[in-house]
Amino acid sequence: MGAWSFLTQTMRSLWLLLIPCLSLSLAPFVQTEKGLEFPRYDGNDRVIDINDKNYKKAMKKYSILCLLYHKPIPDGKELQKQHQMTEMVLELAAQVMEEKEIGFGMVDSHEDVKVAKKLGLVEEGSVYVFKGDRVIEFDGLLSADTLVEFLLDLLEEPVEVIGNTLELRAFDRMEEDIRLIGYFKNDESEYYHEFKEAAEQFQPYIRFFATFEKSVAKELTLKMNEVDFYEPFMEEPVTVPDRPNSEEEIVAFVTEHRRPTLRKLRAEDMFETWEIQLTSQGLIKHRRTFLLRCSDGYEFLELLKEVARDNTHHPGLSIIWIDPDDFPLLIPYWEKTFHVDLFKPQIGVVNVTDADSIWLEIDEQDLPTAQELEDWIEDVLSGKVNTEDDDDDNDDDDEDDDDKDDKSDKKL
Amino acid sequence: MGAWSFLTQTMRSLWLLLIPCLSLSLAPFVQTEKGLEFPRYDGNDRVIDINDKNYKKAMKKYSILCLLYHKPIPDGKELQKQHQMTEMVLELAAQVMEEKEIGFGMVDSHEDVKVAKKLGLVEEGSVYVFKGDRVIEFDGLLSADTLVEFLLDLLEEPVEVIGNTLELRAFDRMEEDIRLIGYFKNDESEYYHEFKEAAEQFQPYIRFFATFEKSVAKELTLKMNEVDFYEPFMEEPVTVPDRPNSEEEIVAFVTEHRRPTLRKLRAEDMFETWEIQLTSQGLIKHRRTFLLRCSDGYEFLELLKEVARDNTHHPGLSIIWIDPDDFPLLIPYWEKTFHVDLFKPQIGVVNVTDADSIWLEIDEQDLPTAQELEDWIEDVLSGKVNTEDDDDDNDDDDEDDDDKDDKSDKKL
């Protein structure tokens, strides 16, 4: 099971072979026929309005319970619609996950103060996932897709077992993920048990793998009861010291090393990714943000990996790679906020507290070299490159635009 | 511009370098700070209720107008909620695309019969996109993400210009897409103009590229005014005969050859992909569906490519590759509908009219070989492998489940 959850997580694929035969159906395929109907909200209420009376029952009923901790439902029509949209995201997720015995509820931060306190809900707008005696804060984008993917990952085994070299090759291709792998005698091993306990602390954000196969361990140069930690996009893993390791040792090591130099932003943990930036320095930090739109993602990723590997020791350096195609809704927003044409390559520094930004001039035919990039990153780190724009202007712009467009819509 | 739209479509990437400095902010990053706020519906109505009086005004006002042609708003509370959800998808898309002067509206198939007839809206539930004198039916998944991505693609140049070998390498990596590329003297060329006119007929579903560089044309072995057609996952392109080609010749060729042997299912054109299956045989066909869940997507894709290349001449063969991670909402649905454990590798044939399915036993450690797969595909094509299950049972199961869960929810 461990093995298959691993395989599905990493390499699910479906193949559909379409063979023509006679039929009378004229309607488009997916909308009308069976086997590929896309789930659409059926309008049934599944999300529970959690209160003092029913929360214990809900906890018992479901193997996993997801609670949205939200501000009181506002009076304004606009804000009510906004709240409704959030509610419907939960309803669709609840409908889709019904078969999996996963429950969904909403906790009002004013009406249900007691329950919130009992359950330890603190951050308004967050989804808290209760699984056994664990509480996991969902730090991803609040969309049905993202929430369901997160919960499916949470349903899988905390440790994914690699049984052969085919699976090992798949492990090698996961360079975007933070991951650990350990070699143990078998699934009875007490050290494997400790490793598994540690894995549960980080599931599904950080991926834990194990092998019981000598041949696999050999390829990974893992000794018995040894655990390696892989930072995203780095070639060599770091070994957790003083094997065999206890749950506490592994948890402590991961907590210390989890902040990567180069990381890809994913919808399922985008907020968590940022929070790492907040806490990794031990202090709450303000971050200046370097933003780059490059004419060739592929070549440029190779370049960035180089720079990241050379500078992975630098405690201040943390690069987040964003593929805008993963966030289409943000593309117009970025173009507007940064006043740049994303149809041209852009390199810039953005101050994330006020969206001030500064942009480098690039020759469209000629990308920066690794050295040029490294020099510039140095200038950003040293503060030589920084932003000066006035953020209030941008805000005003936005509001003006909205007002204007509202009126003109109403005119129709 | 053509070049950059090409680059952004294929290789957009953003890089964020986070540098710790002092700050007092304690709140999570993306939700509170500037530059990465995720667009959330602001509750303002932007979607226009289109009627006899206002549709001309709307057409004039926007460079692109998207109209959802929908059934009358139903009475039942459940169905109204369902309709509301669809409406909110449009509202969020309208909010995000406001800056781009793209308008959104809804046309009621009963109240607005006249308008619908004037505009040629026929299929309830479809979104019709009006751009200049073109009407494009949006055949993707009706989610804000997917619709916005589709519209952004539609805003780009119909032909993307490849100016150097760096861009050519990116073109080479696009094996998943149906694409054409032509070599022309310059952007004044009448044949380039014909090519561009043809491109507009298929934008954004099929991608058109052009080069004016001798060096690029040489690498592609393109003669002057020659156009090559690339089928997804095939190594060699097919050349459009009798160059130089008119718009009509290119349109006819693409229409005839667009149905691929192997294609990846994408949210932005999933319905269109199926409709190709419906029409490619000249007749409306009923399709039996072959579905495979394989333990290693990567190795297996290589295998499938082989089989597809060997059998690309077979008119009856059309394989759709689905990466379930692209459709998380469908994973529980597939598990339920096909009664299979997607945590194990599965190979089966599915009858798409009633979701009957039949599954092969596979040894978990041992994938089928290309030959075994080819033999089996032959058996499916010949009808030796087919489905016999009774679909009514499945339906009943589903309904029962829903009822059960509804009741138990209400109990709370």
TrEMBL record, chains A, B:
One of its GO terms (molecular function) is calcium ion binding. It is found in: Sarcoplasmic reticulum lumen. InterPro entries: Calsequestrin, Calsequestrin_C, Calsequestrin_CS, Calsequestrin_middle_dom, Calsequestrin_N, Thioredoxin-like_sf. Its main location: other. It comes from the Eukaryota. Coiled coil: none annotated. Residues 1-32 form the signal peptide. One of its GO terms (biological process) is regulation of cardiac muscle contraction by regulation of the release of sequestered calcium ion. Keywords: Calcium, Glycoprotein, Muscle protein, Sarcoplasmic reticulum, Signal. The keyword Signal applies. Residues 388-404 have a biased composition (Acidic residues). Residues 381-412 are annotated as: Disordered. One of its GO terms (cellular component) is sarcoplasmic reticulum lumen. The keyword Glycoprotein applies. Belongs to the calsequestrin family. Calsequestrin is a high-capacity, moderate affinity, calcium-binding protein and thus acts as an internal calcium store in muscle. Calcium ions are bound by clusters of acidic residues at the protein surface, especially at the interface between subunits. Can bind around 60 Ca(2+) ions. Regulates the release of lumenal Ca(2+) via the calcium release channel RYR2; this plays an important role in triggering muscle contraction. Plays a role in excitation-contraction coupling in the heart and in regulating the rate of heart beats. This is Calsequestrin. The gene is LOC115161136.
